[in-house]
Specification:
Layout lengths: L5 H14 L23 E9 L2 E8 L15 E8 L1 E9 L5 E6 L5 E3 L3 E3 L5 E7 L8 E10 L14 E4 L5 E5 L4 E4 L6 E2 L8 E9 L4 H11 L3 E5 L8 H9 L3 E4 L12 H15 L5 E2 L8 H9 L3 E3 L13 H5 L10 H4 L5 E5 L6 H16 L3 E2 L2 H5 L3 E3 L1
Parallel strand pairs: 13-18, 14-15, 14-19, 14-20, 15-16, 17-18
Antiparallel strand pairs: 1-2, 2-8, 3-4, 3-9, 4-5, 5-6, 7-8, 9-10, 9-11, 12-21
Length: about 400
Amino acid sequence: MSRSHRPAVAIVLLIAIAALGLTAGPAFAAGDRRDAARSPLDLSSATLTQDGRSLVLAIRTRGDWASRVMTARPGRSLCATLTQGDRRFVCASARRNGGPALTVNGPGGTPAPLRAEILRPNLRTLIARFAARDAGLRTGRYRWTVTSTWADSRGCATPARACNDRLPDRGEISARIRPPAPTGCVARGASYRTSGSRARRAVALTFDDGPGPYTSRILDILRRSGARGTFFVIGQQVSGGAGVLRRALREGHALANHSWNHANLAGGGAGQLRATNAAVRRATGYTPCLFRAPYGAVSGTLIGQARAQGMLTIQWDVDPRDWARPGAGAIQAGGPAAEAARVLGGARSGSIVVMHDGGGPRDQTAAALPGIIATLKRRGYRLVTVPELLGLRARRG
């Protein structure tokens, strides 16, 4: 998402989690036993999920509690314990006016305020979003639990079992902080490319004319085979395929610009390029740094317009002509004529292969893809995105 939309989207996300009953991500639902039945902080469910560089903590209790009571007297706490090397405690607290807040223990164990966006949709729910690094977590594995303690003068006295609860009842939840999805890449080097370095034993598989009905199937194949691809998308189709494009980014693929409506732009098309990048950015938060000219119709004018918008123009050196539906076997196999060169007959170190996930029936492409990937891997090639092939730096956050 773009920076200008991030706060609004964050609030919408938190409200959505509450509305869904806190079921997203690693969760403990209403089946948790009533092992702190006399405590308002008897835990019903808890989730801790990652969103970009932030964590979203959502806790539901079976009883009502106000934020201000957490700091009103000793013996009351509602905390997430985060373990990654050392142990940190992120705990519910209150501001001077009684509004909800969070604290995190510092290196010396002293609680300090933790910057967070907090919602209390009702008196049994706390939803908080905070930066992972502010809670002392870095990229990599960590473990977490949620604990509660309630002491009062009416029969629930710490450390009686009825005053304490934890989720899970035993052990800890294992999770991982992943690097946030890229928000774009940085164009550098020559403005027009048909391949990468021949010194690197890597090949880039690219897919044009989506998102479309076959894009999810292509992504399934790439995920199962551990390959990455680059999707050159049509701007007018982005809104209908935003979900699948966000999935592509989550799974490590790259998005690129293929014009707004697949027009021949050899005479120039700055408006089409700009509109497509804007559509991709609105839908996914990612701004492409690569452009591919429809029909391969490039010109100096078009290449210059793309570069002025921060994009390299990327064509190809291997074309299996899958758009002509020659059959899955033909898409894979080598051919004697240059215009019929198929993937396995033409691919070599640094190759950029053009295929299609949209623009028509692409069942043959999907059928050929597993064999293409398996054979290229057996030959020692890594299947990477075009930005990786060209050594382009990713933008994040």
